Amino acid sequence: ESSTYARFVVSQLTDDERQALRGRYRAERDKRLRADGNNQYLEATGRYANLLDDPYTPVVSRAPLHTDVQVLVIGAGFGGLVIGARLKQAGISDVRLIDKAGDVGGVWYWNRYPGAMCDTAAMVYLPLLEETGTVPSAKYVAAPEIHAHAQRIADTFDLRRDALLSTGVESIMWDESLSRYIVHTDRGDVLRAKYVCTSTGPLHLPKLPGIPGIHSFAGHAFHTSRWDYAYTGGDAKGAPMTGLANKRVGIIGTGATAVQCIPHLSRSAGELFVFQRTPSSIDVRNNHEIDPQWFAELEPGWQRKWMTNFTVLQTLGFAEEDLVKDGWTDISIRIRDRMVELVKAGKSLGPETLLQAYEESDDEKMNEVRSRVDAIVGDERTADALKPWYRQLCKRPCFHDEYLQSFNNPNTHLIDTDGKGVERIDEHGAWVQGVHYPLDCLIIASGFEVGTSYSRRSGFDIAGRNGIALSEYWGNGMRSMHGIHVREFPNLFVIGFTQGANQIANVPQNYVENGLAIADIIAHAEANDMRQVEPTQTAQDDWLTFITSNKRGLRGNPDCTPGYYNNEGKPMSQSDTFNGSGHPGGPVAFFEFLDAWRQTGEFAGLTFTK
Questions:
Q1: For residue 1, with 0-12 CB atoms within 10 Å meaning exposed, 13-18 middle and 19 or more buried, which class applies?
Q2: pLDDT value at position 10?
Q3: What are phi and psi of 262, to 5 degrees?
């Protein structure tokens, strides 16, 4: 793979050229700044209310349960599955998953749009490969294979048998006298759970763009997270969408989801109109099959080694080799090596030198990305509109080898809105800059809610000691110890990455590492007949001070084009700072800290009550 990321020949920029580039970045950002920020998006209501329904699995009638459960895990995506597996490995047998979906898999149950696949290498993205004896078929695997792996985890650790699927949580309330959470569901269940692990996921609730008239469109419309194959034809495995052969199809959004499904739409639709507010950065993917014989020769413990190697390199660290070799590690290695060059040339090892190394490496990378557009897209005007004018890490980078090529197809039209978005939608189509585009089908690829309140995204609230609601407790930002434990909410474990490793390039690694600690804590509490476990106020306060006192990394740049990485361009409030913080040493430092912390068996900062 040495030539995978072969660099386009890009001349060294002069200082004047760099300043001009900064100016272009700021100008493109300013076009897209909006006073409403995250509030520009709408909840799924009206004709789109079915976005919250499950079209894939019929709900089977059953009698309500009234029962005790040792550990209730809310959410059956990779987070919930990994926690369930870790608990089973630790000897905790009474584990019950609950999810509103009809099967396990989380986002990989819901996302069945054509072309859906992971954009992080399967060797590090798919958790518990060794534990389940799984060989990924390719470096990047498609959604059906990912969903199948989720099912395999559930079966390997016997997590299906007691799972409550097609079941939504309505309320969770701590009962001090019982030292249990009383959980009510939409199926009439009343569960008395000693421990609750919440794993509702960072990308869970579909959102709609706040375009005037979006509810007025008379044609067929759906969100990518609920792809309508009954209308389009085809299937999630890539069969041709014959139902679109004579249709005028419009898609709103050009982020990671759209980048994957647009090549399939381009091949199938009579005409395809891609409405673009901000182009994505599209780097090389270069997918390839995995050789089973090579895979079989990997030594035990290989996956944790690969995950650590990926995270070390992706966060500017040093390793003897790059095991994953992808776009995430490529840009980071460039920044790291440039940093070394600058220090050898006499620069001090500090934030200013890091920023210079980042900017110079990013200039090189983004010039390559833009040059790649010119090398692929035939029409000069279309190519210019597809070029991203921002730093690569301002938005989630995309990697694809068919997306840009789609715009060479005569039926595929890029409708660039110059950062303004679609003006309005009427009964027959969409308006952009005074031009009307008639459509038969409207596909919304606006993604999921990020940054809205916990209770809004999860669909329920949690009442802790003395009835305090988690949404109220976190009203000015998340407060936790290690991103897992919350004062006043005994026996509650939050599954995620915020205020912990904050490893967003490979989210499942957060679950794999955090799960070991959570399982050890619960096993310790059970072995010692404890009723409650909770962080001390001092430990939680100290953790918040620690993670907010020293900024790490290069995200959150106010010069970035708006997106969910930077609070849609809005200034960061105290709440945003809390919600976006992680260990200042980075993911590897947090994982090493958490591993050492749990292995002492003392669980410093937690109070166990008999």
A1: exposed
A2: 43
A3: -60, -40
pLDDT in tens, 45-57: 777 777 778 999 9
Contact 273, 251 (CB under 8 A): yes
Question: Residues 532, 491: contact at Cβ < 8 Å?
Answer: yes
Taking the CA atoms of residue 225, residue 230, residue 232 and residue 236 in that order, the dihedral angle to the nearest 10 degrees is 50
- Among 269, 280, 214, 230, residue whose Cα is nearest residue 247: 269
The percentage of residues in the chain with a pLDDT greater than 70, rounded to a whole number, is 90
pLDDT, tens digit, 9 for 90 and up, residues 554-595: 444 556 876 655 555 555 556 677 788 899 999 999 999 999
The Cα–Cα gap between 179 and 532 comes to: 7
Neighbouring CB atoms inside 10 A of 352's CB total 10
Integer Cα distance of 240 and 243 in angstroms: 9
The DSSP 8-state label assigned to residue 321 in this structure reads: S
> Are 256 and 140 spatial neighbours (Cβ–Cβ below 8 Å)?
no
Cα angle 17, 23, 29 (rounded to 5 degrees) comes to: 140
Higher per-residue confidence, 587 vs 4: 587
Query: Cα(230)–Cα(252) distance, rounded to whole angstroms?
Result: 20
Residue in this structure with the two tokens 């900064």, named with its chain if needed? 22
What is the chain's mean pLDDT, rounded?
A: 91
Binned at pLDDT 50, 70 and 90, residue 14 comes out as confident
pLDDT digits (tens, 9 = 90+) for 280-308: 999 999 999 999 999 999 999 999 999 99
Query: What are 223's strand-pairing partners?
Result: 444
Q: Which of 200-209, 363-372, 463-472, 586-595 has the lowest mean pLDDT?
A: 200-209
CA separation for the pair 118, 116 (Å, rounded): 7
- Structure tokens of 468? 């305090």
Q: Which helix (H) or strand (E) holds 575?
A: helix 574-580
Rg (CA), the chain: 24
Task: Band the pLDDT of 477: cuts 50, 70, 90.
Answer: very high
- Nearest-5° angle of CA 470, CA 472, CA 473? 60
Strand (E) positions, 408-498? Answer: 412-416, 424-425, 429-432, 435-438, 441-444, 462-463, 492-494
The pLDDT value given to residue 169:
97
Residues paired with 98 in a beta bridge: 74, 164
**H/E element holding 383?**
helix 380-385
* Bridge partner list, 289: 138
Token pair of 266 as six digits: 């381009």
CB-hemisphere CA count at 13 Å for 253?
25
The CA distance from 363 to 486, in Å, is 42
177 vs 580: which has the higher pLDDT:
177
CB atoms within 10 A of CB 60: 8
CB 500 within 8 Å of CB 482 = yes
Entry pTM: 0.92
Name residues whose C-beta falls within 8 Å of residue 19's C-beta, 6 or more positions apart in sequence: none
**Assigned token pair, 331:** 């840009």
Cα 26-28-32 angle, rounded to 5 deg: 110
As a whole number of angstroms, the distance between CA 150 and CA 77 comes to 7
What pLDDT is stored for residue 556 in this prediction? 47
Instruction: Name 177's Cβ contacts closer than 8 Å, sequence gap at least 6.
Output: none
Separation of alpha carbons 195 and 534, rounded Å: 11
